[in-house]
């Protein structure tokens, strides 16, 4: 869920912010995280991922950071991390999704029956 200063998050945008909530990561790690947490049902392709990252950077929700890895192959990778605004936007979106899941549960959509 966005506030007045933050555009609404797309599902891909929220997934990227969620992947970065644990710390800085490069694009491939973000793609793997999303695939793993969705049990393979969601796959962010490179085009979607990098367009999403560009938008998140433009909206000041994510910043590009330097790699701290000594691995020379890592020097070519771009790392990203959440800004304070990005963390706030992700938390608000998680709260909204939590409320939606509660309503879905009450409506019997999650395999539970609604109590009378």
Automatic annotation (TrEMBL):
Residues 16-91 form the Transcription regulator PadR N-terminal domain. InterPro entries: Metal_resp_DNA-bind_regulator (IPR052509), Tscrpt_reg_PadR_N (IPR005149), WH-like_DNA-bd_sf (IPR036388), WH_DNA-bd_sf (IPR036390). Pfam families: PadR. It comes from the Bacteria. PANTHER family: PADR-FAMILY TRANSCRIPTIONAL REGULATOR (PTHR33169). This is Transcriptional regulator PadR-like family protein. It comes from Kibdelosporangium aridum.
């Amino acid at each position: 869920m966005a506030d007045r200063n933050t555009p609404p998050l797309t599902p891909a945008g929220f997934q990227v912010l969620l992947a970065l909530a644990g710390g800085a990561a490069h694009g491939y790690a973000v793609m793997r995280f999303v695939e793993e947490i969705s049990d393979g049902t969601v796959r962010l392709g490179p085009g979607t991922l990098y367009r999403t990252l560009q938008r998140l950077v433009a909206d000041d929700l994510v910043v590009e950071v330097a790699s701290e890895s000594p691995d020379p192959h890592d020097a070519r990778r771009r790392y990203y991390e959440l800004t304070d605004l990005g963390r706030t936007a992700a938390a608000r979106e998680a709260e909204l999704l939590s409320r939606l899941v509660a309503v879905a549960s009450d409506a019997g959509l999650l395999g539970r029956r609604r109590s009378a």
